Amino acid sequence: MLAPNEDSLTPTETVALVLNLVFAGHATTVNLIANGVAALLTHPDQLALLRDDPTLAPDAADELMRWCGPTPRALPRYATEDLDLGECPIRQGEAVLPVLAAADRDPRAHPDPDRLDITRARTRPGSPHVGFGHGAHRCVGDRLALQEAQIAWTALWDRFPEPTLAIAPQELVREAHPNSWKLTALPVHLHP
Ligand code: HEM
Question: What is the tens place of the pLDDT at every residue in 143-182?
């Protein structure tokens, strides 16, 4: 990005792009990692499956994105013409706020959607989640985020094989943030 050539970005473009990548890519991935740890600690059967078969890691990452992805909503879209979406008429110029988390719990796409099942992709391929959005503005950092999360989860359990939640699951607190499914804290005991 910094190498001078005829396609060089201006300093303003460079700063804007770096800020965009850091803000779009940092907190989101941090929250996915924490949400995933909380989910696995509260679903020991799923954690056992993953530990028995590490090749499940990519599927687990996608299922955790679906089940506890950190970005419940996309940015607003504005209708360029009148349309009907499902049974809902939308007029030109009106805003639509896609709720990704609702789509990812839609039983028509994901049977028994509230169940965390890291083998879901194997038993029912072709039903991907939309936690990274959809279409032209789908997240550009999706592969990086999933890799980072898998590395973090693997490193945690390699280093501390038996972490446990230090509080009851119902005591986990989420921040009241409009577009972030985010824990305020994740207290764990690293050793039993
Ligand atoms: C778990 C982590 C992440 C989640 C849940 C996430 C989620 C999303 C979602 C839902 C969108 C689409 C928003 C919309 O359509 O309104 C998006 C776009 C975007 N993401 Fe991510 N993201 C993550 C990680 C990253 C990373 C690691 C990067 C960069 C290194 C990144 C950079 C971007 C950028 C630049 C866009 C805008 C793309 C565009 O408008 O064309 N994201 N992300």
Answer: 999 999 999 999 999 999 999 999 999 999 999 888 899 9
Asked if residue 46 lies in contact with residue 57, where contact means CB atoms within 8 angstroms, the answer is no
**Dihedrals phi, psi of 72, to nearest 5 degrees:** -70, -25
Tell me the pTM: 0.92
In DSSP notation, 4-36 reads -STTPPPHHHHHHHHHHHHHHHHHHHHHHHHHH
The alpha carbon of 18 and the centre of ligand 1 are apart by a number of angstroms equal to: 13
Tell whether ligand 1 has an atom less than 6 A from the beta carbon of residue 97. Answer: no
Count of CA atoms in the C-beta half-sphere (13 A) of 150: 17
Atom of ligand 1 nearest to the CA of 32: 1
Name the residue ranges covered by the structural domains of the chain. Answer: 11-72+100-189
Which residue minimizes the CA distance to atom 40 of ligand 1?
137
CATH architecture of 11-72+100-189: Orthogonal Bundle (1.10)
State if residue 98 touches ligand 1 by the CB under 6 angstroms criterion: no
